[in-house]
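Notes from the 1:1 (GR / supervisor)

We went over the backlog. Supervisor wanted to see one worked example end to end before approving the batch request, so GR pasted a single chain during the call. The sequence is below; no edits were made to it. Supervisor asked that the structure be written out right there so they could see what the output format looks like.
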Amino acid sequence: MSYATPADILLRFDANLLGMLVNDNSQKLTPMQLQTDSALQAALDDATGIIESALYVAYKYTAAEIATVTAGSVSLLKRLCCDLAIVMLCQRRAYDYADKYPMLNLTLDLIQKLRYGERVLDFGPNENAGLSAATKVTLVQQECAGLVVSNYRIFPVNKNRDY
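Structure output shown during the call:
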């Protein structure tokens, strides 16, 4: 499932442009036809894959976390997805998109910032924010982990000495 739907991309880009980019003949598709167009949906799915491949690197985000983001972060994901999808539709036509869609560089830059943690997605309020989740480690757990130094290791017993 992609982050954006055909309705989302229609809100962000001109329907006439989209109608020309997705249709293989000289006729443009109507906004109603775009809702079910497979080329448009494929571009949105490809864009989602690019976003996920960047966000899932080094386990910065998981699918479960992304499913719980706030409305603002959902809108950002939709914007990124739509921006990438329009460029993919241009590539489908072999158009040079660099001068027509300079937002691609901004979009890719923002995805990299999300990937590296310079920007983050909002997951809403966390009731446990600031509380330590650590519990006190018992002496038995420390001994099992080899963290307790015994007296014999510091002052070894000399078995050759007679007292």
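Supervisor's comment: Residues 106 and 142 are 50 Å apart (CA to CA).
Batch request approved.
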